[in-house]
Automatic annotation (TrEMBL):
Domain SpoVT-AbrB, residue spans: 77-122
InterPro entries in the record: AbrB-like (IPR027360), SpoVT-AbrB_dom (IPR007159), SpoVT-AbrB_sf (IPR037914)
Species in which this protein is naturally found: Halotia branconii CENA392
Keyword DNA-binding applies: yes
GO molecular function terms noted in the UniProt entry: DNA-binding transcription repressor activity; transcription cis-regulatory region binding
Stored Pfam families: AbrB-like (PF14250)
Classification lineage: Bacteria, Bacillati, Cyanobacteriota, Cyanophyceae, Nostocales
Keywords tagged on the record: DNA-binding
Gene Ontology annotations for the cellular component aspect, listed alphabetically: protein-DNA complex
Name of the protein: AbrB family transcriptional regulator
Signal sequence region: none
Amino acid sequence: MTETATAPLTGKALLAKVKELSTLPRRERAKQCGYYTVTKNNQVRVNLTDFYDALLSARGIPLSPEAPKDGRGREPTYRVSVHQNGQIVIGATYTKAMGLKSGDEFEIRLGYKHIHLIQLGDTDKKAALEDIDSDESEEDLEDEE
């Protein structure tokens, strides 16, 4: 197996040593700062990845974001496209943001270059339909002019 020969430098000590060894090649700099291992065959292997990671950390550049993501999904783009079968799918991100539940129903109203989805409910249904009808009549008047 491999074992580390010396404790690698970190922080300000690493920055000072790198500045001091600025004339040397990068592999030699990493080796001088302790970022190497010796194999069972007595071969020296320089670990440049750990060296660069330590160098970035010493300079205050974060390597990983503060709030780790769960690794699932993508960021919402607020755009959808029509699939090949003619369907438009609205993702779970949007339905959760709107507080929708499984089984919620909508009325689909087609307008000029837009689609309105009106959530069906006892009290909201009539008011929403009246608002949409008045909006469409205003748009029709604008189109005629």
